[in-house]
Amino acid sequence: FFSFTALRVRLRGLFGGPLGRREDESMASAGRFGGGVLRALSQSLKSHTGVTVQKRSVGNLPVRPNSYVEDWAHNRENIELTFKWNAKTLAILGTAGLLTPYLIYNLCVDEFHSMQKMAGKPRQKYMGRD
Q1: CA-wise closest residue to 76 among 64, 88, 68
Q2: Which residues pair with 62 in a beta bridge?
Q3: Strand 61-63 vs strand 56-58: parallel, antiparallel, or unpaired?
Q4: For 77-120, how does the pLDDT look when each residue is reduced to its tens digit (9 = 90+)?
């Protein structure tokens, strides 16, 4: 024999809360705040000692924070406080910002010149380069 009431009671025990109002409950009798809001409020008002880890969940699945990912995210959020201008950063910016685009440009121009030579067309100048 299957009973929706028995199923509801079992699910309520599993998930720790009501799965909806009963037919005889109204919004006034249900209360303005649910148990979850009061529980969160009471936990936030307790005094915290030490560092607390934020509890995150995806739906009802618990998510375990990865410390390496959290550290990386923290460093990305505070990059303006930790950035140092030195020879290493100058070399990285020079390579990524100047040398790499220049090499790509020269490769493209050389490819254009070789295609023009194969097609028998006169060689064109690209930004002053022969």
Answers
A1: 68
A2: 57
A3: antiparallel
A4: 999 998 999 999 999 999 999 999 999 999 999 999 999 999 99
Asked if residue 127 lies in contact with residue 117, where contact means CB atoms within 8 angstroms, the answer is no
Task: Report yes or no on whether pTM surpasses 0.85.
Answer: no
Residue 56 structure tokens? 């995150």
What b/e string do you get for 87-104 counting C-beta neighbours within 10 Å, with b at 16 or more? eeeeeeeeeeeeeeeeee
Output the six-digit token pair for 86.
Answer: 């030195």
**Contacts for 21 with CB less than 8 Å, ≥ 6 apart:** 30
- HEC string of 31-88 equals CCCCHHHHHHHHHHHCCCCCCCCCCEEECCEEECCCHHHHHHHHHHHCHHHHCCCCHH
Determine the Cα–Cα distance for residues 9 and 16; give it in Å rounded to an integer. Answer: 10
* 4, HSE (Cβ side, Cα atoms, 13 Å): 3
Supply 44's token pair: 């936030």
Residue 12, number of CB atoms within 10 A of its CB: 13
